[in-house]
C-alpha cells in the first residue's frame, strides 16, 4: 500500500513536471481582431472564432473573449485603449505602420516575444517579415503575413483600347507613359475624357504612390534615419515624373493626388465607374478584385515602372499579432502560446489562399498557396524588391509633413523641388 | 432659483427632491465632462507617457505657439468662423422671418423641414457634398452648363476651404430657425400695431422692432455658432483630412491628430486649452458688443 502510494506520488510529480507550464494558468484572455474573409454565412470573424474554440478546447480553463473591431477604427481604438492602459492581450497590429508607435515599444506597452521562439522556429520566417516586427534587436510580434504594393491593370480597358499589357508585368517608365497615353480616352465621344490611364491618392500613412518616388533610387531618410534625403536629385526627378502624368501627359484625372482613398478605388473597381485603367494598391486588393461580387474585375498585376534605379522598387509591409504587456507571467505564456497558435504554418497557408496575403513562414510558402492564383503569384515575386517605410519614432509626424507637400505638387501648386525641400525643413526638428 | 452666498447647502436641503432628479445628469457631467476637462488642464503641463509622465511646465504651450501648424490651423479656423457664423445667423433670421407670418400648419411644416438636417449625421451630409464636389459631380456639371471649366474643389488649396465653408453655410441652420421663431413669437403684437398706426411698413417694422427684440437670440446663436465653428472637425476629416497640404487643417483637426495619431496627449491638451482661451475671448467680445437688456 505504502509502495503504491509512493508510486502514485512519483507519477504525479513526473506528470506535473511534464505538463506544460501554460496549463498552470486559467482565466480570460481578450483578443481584438478585425474582419477577415467571409464564410458562407457572411461572417467575417469566423476564422478567429474557430481558432478561439480550438484553443479553448486544447486549454481547459482558458476563456478567450473576442472584440470585433473594424480595420478603419482599429488604430484609433487601440491608441485610446493604450492611453487608458486598458489594452487587449493580443491584437493584429503592424508595428511598421502607424497603429502602434515605436514609442510604445520603448515604453514597454508591447511584450517582447524573444523567449517564445527557438532559433529553429525563427528560421522558418522570412527575414523581411521578422524584421518588420523587430526593434532594437527584440521581436515584438508574430508575423502572419506579408503585403506588397503593385499596379492593378484593368484588362478590359486595355483590350478596349487595343493596348498590350506589359510583358510579365514589367515595364520601363517610357513604356508605362506610352501605354497610359493610349488608355486615356473619350469613351462616349462628347469631347470629354472619360477614362484615364492612371490615378492614385496621397494621404498620410498610405504609400501607394511612394514606389514612384523611389524609382530613381531616392529614399526618404538616410540608412541610419538621422537625415532627410527626399530632397535628393533622384527624389525630385521621380516626383516630377509622377506629377507629369497629370500635368504634362494628362493621363490622370483631376483628383489624382487628393486624399480620397475610397473614391480612387471606386474609379478603378466599381463596375458603374471603371474610369481608370491602372492604379496601385496593396495586395489586399487582389483578393477583392478576384472574389468580391461587387468589384470582381478582369485584371492583372504589374510592377511599378522601372526608373533610373534599374529595379521595380515597391513598398512592402507585414501583418501579424502583438502581445500587450502582461503582469501575470503565467498568463503571458498562455497569450504568447495563443499568438503562436494563430500564426502556425497551416493558418498562414489558409490566410494566403483565402485572405490574399503572402505567408510570412517559408513552410507555408512551400505549400504553394497561389497555384491557382496567378495575380498573387506574380505579386509575390515583387516581394524581393519591396522596401519598408523608415522605422523612426517620429515617423507619423515626418510622414505627415512629406505627404502634405506631395499633395501640393500633385495639385500643381508647388514644384517637386520646392515641395521636397520644404518638407525637409519641416521634418528637421523631428529627426533630432 | 437664486442662491445667496453660503446658502447652497441650505438650498439643497430645502429642494432636495429637485436636486435628486438632476443628480444623475450632474454625476454624468462630472464623470464625462468636468473631470476630463480638469485632467486635460493637468496633462497639458506634462509629457504624457503610458507608465510615467514628466512635468514639463509650459513647454507644451511654447511648442504649440512656436509650432509650424498651429497658426495655419488657427487662421483656417478663423476664416471658417468669420464666414460661417454670420452667414448661419443671417440665414436663420431671414428664414424665421419668412416662416413667422405663415399659418400654424405651414409653420410646423417648415420648422420640421429646416430642422431635419440638424438631426442628419454630418457624415452623411459630407459624403453627399463630396460627391457634389467630384470632378464629374453636380457642381462641376452646373459650371459646365455655363461653359466654366471644372474646378478641383477639394484638391486645390484655393478652393478646399471655401468648399467646406459653402457646405456648412448651405446646411440649413435648424436650431437657429427654431430659436428665432420662438423669439419672434413672443414679441407682443401690440408693438407692430402701434408701428402700423404710425405708418411703418413691414420692412421698417422688421428693422425697428423685430431685429432689436431678437437681439438676445442673435447673441446666443452667435456665441453658440462661434464655439461650434471653432470646433469644426468632422467635415474637414471627411472631405479633405486637412489637405491639400494644410489648406483645411483646423484647430480641432490638429488636436485630434496630435492626440490620436502622434500620441502626444500633453501637447494636444495644451492645444485644446489654447483653443478654449480663444473661444472664451471671442465669446466675451460678442457678449460685450451684442448684449443688451431687452424688456417688452
Protein model, in words:
The complex is a heterodimer of chains A (about 425) and B (about 300). Chain A is about 40% helix and about 15% strand. Chain A is built from 18 helices and 12 strands. Chain A is an alpha/beta fold and about 425 residues long. Chain A folds into 2 domains: about 25-145 and about 315-375, Periplasmic binding protein-like II (D-Maltodextrin-Binding Protein, domain 2); about 150-315 and about 390-430, Periplasmic binding protein-like II (D-Maltodextrin-Binding Protein, domain 2). In chain A, helix 17 (about 395-410) packs antiparallel against helix 18 (about 415-430). Mean pLDDT of chain A is about 90; it is low at about 15-20. In chain A, strand 4 and strand 5 form a beta hairpin. In chain A, strands 3, 6, 7, 8, 9, 10, 11 and 12 form an 8-stranded mixed sheet that branches. Chain A has a two-stranded parallel ribbon with strand order 1-2. In chain A, strands 4-5 form a two-stranded antiparallel sheet. By secondary structure, chain B is mainly α. Chain B has 2 domains: about 1-45, no CATH class; about 60-290, MetI-like fold (Orthogonal Bundle). Helix content of chain B is about 70%, strand content about 0%. Chain B is built from 15 helices and 2 strands. Chain B has helices at about 10-15, 15-45, 60-65, 70-100, 105-120, 120-135, 140-145, 160-170, 175-185, 190-195, 200-215, 215-230, 235-240, 250-260, 265-290; strands at about 45, 55. Chain B has a two-stranded antiparallel sheet. In chain B, a hairpin with a 6-residue loop joins strand 1 (about 45) and strand 2 (about 55). In chain B, helix 1 crosses helix 2. The longest helix of chain B is centred in the first third of the chain and has 30 residues, at about 70-100. Classes of the chains: A alpha/beta (about 425), B mainly alpha (about 300). The interface between A and B is medium-sized, with 34 and 26 residues.
